[in-house]
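Co-fold these.
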Amino acid sequence: MTLQSLLIVSAALFCIGLLAALSRRHAIFILIGIEMMLAAAGLNFIAFWRFGSQPAPPTGVMITIFAIAIAAAEAAVGLALVIAVYRHYRTTNVDQMNQLKG
Amino acid sequence: MNSAAFIVIAILTLAAALAAATLRKLVHAALCFAAAFVGVAAFYFLLGAEFVGLIQVFVYVGAVAVLIVFTILLTRREVEEDRAFHWSGALVALAVFAGLAWAIFKSAGLSVTATAIPGLTVKQIGEMLMTDYIWPLQCIGLLLTAALVGALVLVMEEKR
Amino acid sequence: MRAFLDQIFVLGKERVLALFNGAPGWLLEIISSLLNIVGLLIVFLSLFALVSVLERKILARIQNRLGPNRVGPFGLLQPAADGIKMLIKEDIVPLRADRVVHFLAPILIAATAILALGIIPYGRNMTPFAIDGGILFFFAIGSTTELSVFMAGWGSNNKFSILGAMRAIAQMVSYELPLILTVLPVVMVVGSLRPDAIVAAQAGYSLGVIPHWFVLTPWGAAAFLLFFVSGLVESNRTPFDVPEGESEIVAGHMTEYSGFKYAIFFLGEYLGMFAIGGLAVTLFLGGWHAPFSFFEFVPSWLWFFAKLGALIFVFIWVRGTLPRTRVDQVMNFAWKFMLPMAFACILAAAVWHYAGRGWAAWAWSLLVVALIYFALARLLDTGQKFAPRTYRFAE
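Predicted complex below.
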């Protein structure tokens, strides 16, 4: 287990998230993709903290904790948006949400 | 043993993440999403950041996945399958991955192996949060409250 | 002799580990974990069998019946008969069900319950999985139950199942808040998330007879009651078994399960109950400490299981006495009463800590809890709703 292998894993996770966010048309999939990208970033932070010079202040850990909290808030608001938009347009396909007029 | 655990967790996490990104049925994707995040939490455990791994499971599996599942149920249509798939997105993702991998392999000094496990206790994290990181913590509290109120306002029935 | 009896399981494990002397470190680690897991499984599966028959006996006693008494002495072999029956029953999976999800749900429920049992200190030096954030681990694992309940409900492709699962998730999410908030005062006062440290903080006796358990402080008593009620909800026990109310929605998320899968659900529910009870014992009832200083000669693990048994008896007693609540009552109770009271407990614990943890502190924190309780009762105006009912009969 080297830093390199961990970074490759987190890069793969990031790109899978990117794939979900770019390829799928369902709003919930896009949210899932964004969450995955955030998790990949968190994994990077923890990996650099772990393989950095010791003893180091746990800045990476702190940033990951805050990132998780922000991701939770983002998911709550995002999913509420999905529900609100669904009520209005009766669809969750982001390609069909193309009107500014309510 | 660490390397073996690393390989197993990496394969499981990436497989679950890929399934979450490509499965047709929304609910299956949401469950795979939860599995992928358990895998990420396992990485955190492996790297000695137990506390972060625990809150990862707590927040993602306990809260976000349940929220996603609820949203799927509340927005259900006759077909709960999402067939549209843009292959251009896959191309972009592959290109980004190739770029990232190239950068990671090219940079020197990344192939370091782990030093001794930095014993980070929950108590230390708590003390850091209450001293050095007190303002970010307050901001997060404010943000979460705002998100809570905002989400409630968004999903409340519109008055006609 | 006393020390030997107290540590008999620890010594036994060391003896077994000594057999593998010379094996590499990682192998020893795996064997040690496996021994812990096997011990946990043996103890709790037999406790499950025992409690399942005792519950029927006690319920029968409450309802003036005899209960199971045909199989074995006093009907004690009933669980074996039930197990065989469950095993040879046909395992039905509905045609339109989502097979994989339907299959995985009961496994996940039982597995997470067993994982949660791992962090509880069962006796002196007897924590199977001693981790720094043990309490957090318990709740992180416990929060995955919601997802597995949803999997059961959705995988069965049945209206009753999905309705039951939605009810279960809604009430679990609502009661998870008071459940965790009532743990906070204990964590604050002890200053650690480690179950061992929490048990160690409750050691010692005042005047030689009064133990330093948190349940004997005003904030601890209030938090314990709230925790117990939330635990009843989390383990879907009567009077909060709305998700599986037989008379309303057949069996909730378990409607489409039969045979051994149903038995696994049953097992998961009981293990969840043991886990909540064990955590309540650890947090509020002094863990494995003896209630009086002159009882300390009894092995510590015996005390733990005695307290757990007493709590399980109360679980069963409550089931035998109280009627089922309505869905809206359950939710209102959670948000309007449990949540503010949980915050009151945190406040009272802070008052207790800063007033010096003595007798005066005891009185001050009692004042805080009582004040908030009465203010809340006044605010919610429960008096009118629970006025004595007048019955009218046809004449």
